Amino acid sequence: MRAMNFVSLWLHSLRWGRGIEDIPANDFRRGRPRWTPKNFAHNIQLVDAFGRMARQKGCTLGQPTLAWLLVQEKNMALIPGTRRDARFDENFAALQVHIAGEENKQTRNLLNRAGIQGQRYPAEFMSRVGL
Fold it and tell me: For this UniProt entry, which residues form the secretion signal (predicted)?
């Protein structure tokens, strides 16, 4: 679950930019706890860790993120949504990004240690989604 929450963060940070101020005022995420300025500032550091990995591997930010998720479970199938052929190709190319054992362990430790701050939904919505 932690990994999937992280993926949501990096997808939205790619779309909107580096800071909460980059998200349009009418965007629904502004009302979510995870996207408050304090929580966003903490959570974007996790995105930065995958950014460093992407630069080291010479790939996009999304590729090592998807590759890392794939090594977490033997029977996992990722279905990232996209509207553009280029993004589909980019996502598919994540299969060529290799995450070594120690790299996987360090990344998992980082996510477990740092954690994602803020609930996914406001309290009044949490019961509606069974959380």
Answer: 1-19
